[in-house]
Amino acid sequence: MLTLFHVTVMIKKILIVSFSVILLLGCQSQQDPKQEIFARIDDDVLTVEEFIYTYTPQIRFMKNPFDKEMLNYHGGRMIRNVLFAQHQEELGTYDPLILTDEITEAERKAVIDEMIRLMIDDSLETLSEEEMREAYRKSLEYREVRHLFSPDSAKIQSWYRQIQSGQESFLSLSKEAFQDTFLANHGGYLGFVTFGDMVPEFEEMVFHTEPGKVSKPFKTPFGWHILSVESVQTDMLPSEDDFQMNRGRIKNKIRRVKKEKFLSNFYTSLVEKRKIRPDLGGVQALSHLIMSSRITGKSLANNIQAYPSEALFEEVLNKSQDIWDKPVVYVDDDFLSLIDILPLLKRVPLALLYRNPSQAVLFAVRDELVYQMGLERGLNEHETVQMKKGVRKKDWLSRQFVAALTDTMSIHYPPNLNEDEKNRYAREVQNALIHQTYLDLRQKARIWTDMDKIYAYYDNIK
Question: Domain containing 368: what range?
Answer without folding.
Answer: 277-376
